[in-house]
Design goal:
Structural class: mainly alpha
Number of helices: 9
Radius of gyration: 18 Å
Largest sheet: none
Number of domains: 1
Helix content: 55-70%
Order of helices and strands: HHHHHHHHH
Distance between the termini: 22 Å
């Protein structure tokens, strides 16, 4: 027998996207094995700018980076869509949600290395589930997911392949920032890479880069077995527009 799917869940999946991605990134940060390549630039810049002004929290830097990414998206598409402003609003909401989870996990102690690897795995799974949720809603995406969805639709690329290239590009950016902003690569004990990170970059970052796209696809298939993301507010869907062409292929 086929299980009846839960309908009218598009808005719920969007909320799941915000919460699970923020929770996953905070868990990966707490593991101290290297955060995801998407989150790494914000954490690296946050560490570099913290001595200058405490107001540069990771969450604030996160939505500023997403704002820059939206400007780049407009340049690539050669057009501006007012919905991109909503994506920036989502980025601001996500930034402060991330700050909240970082605050909630501040006292979490992960003394053993295997505890930290479990935390990293749990964080990666949360992130993948959240991203898969985002791709199944008509509500505004974060700039990262929006960038992948819009570029893949505009140029006819597969969503998964576009996501893979996007992730690798952010990984390269993160490495460049880590090695240039601090200048202490020579003092880091690289033999400890299995249990420590270098300015939020580590073996965990590479693992996340390798498994992120297929993990999102797997989570998407699980979501599609349970949820039917029809809108709870159809009039809002008509205003914002239906799901972007190509995004269902993530699952």
């Amino acid at each position: 027998m086929h299980m009846k799917k839960i309908e009218r869940t598009s808005e719920l999946l969007w909320l799941f996207g915000i919460l699970f991605v923020a929770c996953g990134v905070a868990l990966c940060s707490k593991a101290d094995l290297g955060v995801s390549m998407i989150a790494a630039p914000a954490f690296i810049l946050g560490e570099a700018l913290a001595p200058l002004w405490s107001g540069f929290s990771v969450g604030v830097i996160e939505y500023l980076i997403q704002g820059i990414l939206l400007v780049l998206l407009c340049a690539l598409l050669r057009r501006f869509d007012w919905r991109f402003l909503l994506a920036f609003a989502v980025a601001v909401l996500y930034g402060y949600t991330l700050n909240l989870f970082l605050f909630l996990f501040r006292s979490l102690l992960l003394s053993a290395v295997w505890h930290r690897w479990i935390a990293l795995a749990a964080g990666d799974l949360c992130i993948a589930f959240g991203v898969a949720c985002f791709f199944r809603t008509y509500l505004p995406l974060q700039a990262y997911e929006l960038f992948v969805a819009e570029v893949s639709a505009r140029f006819g690329f597969g969503v998964n392949k576009t996501k893979w290239v996007f992730d690798l590009s952010l990984l390269a950016l993160s490495l460049a920032l880590a090695f240039t902003l601090f200048g202490d690569a020579g003092s880091f004990d690289w033999s400890s890479v299995f249990g420590a990170s270098y300015h939020s970059i580590g073996l965990g970052t590479l693992v996340t880069t390798a498994i992120n796209s297929p993990l999102i696809s797997l989570c998407g298939k699980c979501i599609d077995r349970i949820f039917l993301p029809t809108p709870l507010f159809p009039s809002l869907e008509r205003i914002l527009g239906r799901k972007r062409k190509g995004t269902p292929s993530v699952g």
